[in-house]
Design brief:
10 strands, 2 helices, single chain, three-stranded antiparallel β-sheet
C-alpha cells in the first residue's frame, strides 16, 4: 500500500498548516480532502508564514508578526498586538520605546527630555500643592487668626512651624533638574 502525504491550509488566510497528513490508496483512489495540497510546501522559517497561491501548487513566504506588540511612531503610547500575518504598517514599529516621552527619529526612539521634564515638574508641583494644603495652610490660617487676636508670639511660632513644614515638603518632593540640552 502506497502512503500519500498531503497538507491542509486555512481557506481564509491561505496559510499552510505545518502538520503532514497521510492517507493510503483504497480502491485505486487516494482519499484526501478536496482542498488538500499534495506538493510539499516551503520549509517553515521563523518570522514568516507559508501561504499557498490561488493555483494550489505554488507557495510564498509572508511576514508573520502575530502576537507581537507594535508601537505607533507618531505617539509611542499607542500600541496594539498583531493578530494577522503580513508586514507591519510603516507607521508602526516593533521597537519598544524607553519612556512615555520618546519620539520616533531616524529609525529609533529618542526621549524628548523637555517634555519629560515639564511632565515631572508638573507632577512634583501638584504633589507639593497637595501637601502644602494639608500641612502648611492650617498653620498659616491659625497664625493669621492669632495675629488678628493680638497674640503675636503665638502667631510667630505658628508662622515658623509653617515655614519648617514647607521646607520639609520641598525636601520630600524635590523638583526635577532641567535637562542639559536646555
Amino acid at each position: 500500500m502506497k502512503e500519500i502525504k498531503y497538507w491542509t491550509f486555512d481557506e481564509q488566510t491561505r496559510e499552510v498548516r505545518p502538520d503532514i497528513n497521510f492517507t493510503t490508496m483504497r480502491g485505486g483512489i487516494a482519499h484526501i480532502p478536496v482542498n488538500a495540497l499534495t506538493n510539499e510546501p516551503l520549509t517553515p522559517k521563523t518570522g514568516f508564514a507559508v501561504v499557498v497561491q490561488n493555483d494550489l501548487n505554488d507557495y510564498k513566504y509572508i511576514e508573520d508578526h502575530r502576537g507581537k506588540t507594535v508601537y505607533r511612531k507618531e505617539n509611542c503610547l499607542d500600541t496594539h498586538s498583531i493578530t494577522e500575518s503580513g508586514p507591519i504598517d510603516t507607521s508602526w514599529t516593533e521597537k519598544k520605546p524607553k519612556t512615555d516621552f520618546d519620539e520616533w527619529m531616524l529609525g529609533q526612539w529618542v526621549t524628548n527630555n523637555k517634555k519629560k521634564y515639564e511632565f515631572e515638574y508638573k507632577q512634583a508641583e501638584a504633589q507639593r500643592r497637595s501637601r502644602y494644603t494639608k500641612r502648611v495652610r492650617p498653620l498659616l490660617e491659625e497664625a493669621q487668626i492669632k495675629a488678628y487676636l493680638g497674640m503675636k508670639s503665638e502667631a510667630n511660632a505658628l508662622l515658623e512651624s509653617a515655614t519648617k513644614e514647607r521646607m520639609k515638603v520641598q525636601q520630600e518632593v524635590p523638583l526635577p533638574s532641567k535637562p542639559e540640552d536646555e
